[in-house]
Amino acid sequence: MVRSGRISNLERYYILQELGKIAQRIFNKNLEVRSTRENKRYNLNFIKDALKFESDPITFTNTYWVDVGSEDGNKIAAYYEYGTGLYNTKHRIIGRDYIRPKNYDFLHFINNDGKHIYTKAVKGVEGIHYFRRTMNTINKNEEYLIQRIRNELGI
Fold first, then answer.
1. What is the distance between the alpha carbons of residues 28 and 86, in angstroms, rounded to a whole number?
2. Residue 24 CA: distances (Å) to CA of 28, 40, 57, 66
3. Residue 149: its pLDDT value, please?
4. Tell me: the pLDDT tens digits for 51-89?
5. CA neighbours within 13 Å on the CB side: how many for 88?
6. What is the pLDDT of residue 106?
7. Is 67 helix (H, G, I), strand (E, B) or coil?
8. Is 154 helix (H, G, I), strand (E, B) or coil?
9. ∠74-78-105 over CA atoms, to 5°?
10. Residue 27: how many CA atoms within 13 Å on its side-chain side?
11. What residues does 101 pair with on adjacent strands?
């Protein structure tokens, strides 16, 4: 049962901490669901538990970000979030083009069968949008989640 009256900053902080933990669970679930696409399995384990948050009880908001732990890991996480090449959703006007080699004449890949593939350009990969989906879920259900947290904590 939620008690009536104003809540203190400490109680607000507890609510925001619980909301952040829920966001982390939703984030990991989105990663798990979105990592399997078109029968391709992306290995996104390095991004798991990378959603960080900071609570501000004065403004009653959480600030969220993804931090994998290394600069290269954060870049790769951004590639999975926004997509690359033609599918890049971050830079829609500039930067939406085929991925081409910079230093050589061909791009070189080894597929799952061990076969060498040479090509002049690739389309890129579509973004998985795991962070955006998490934030949309939290923002859409924030009032319900806060009410549920208050009931659980008795605030």
1. 27
2. 6, 24, 19, 10
3. 95
4. 999 999 889 999 999 999 999 999 999 998 988 888 887
5. 18
6. 95
7. coil
8. coil
9. 100
10. 24
11. none
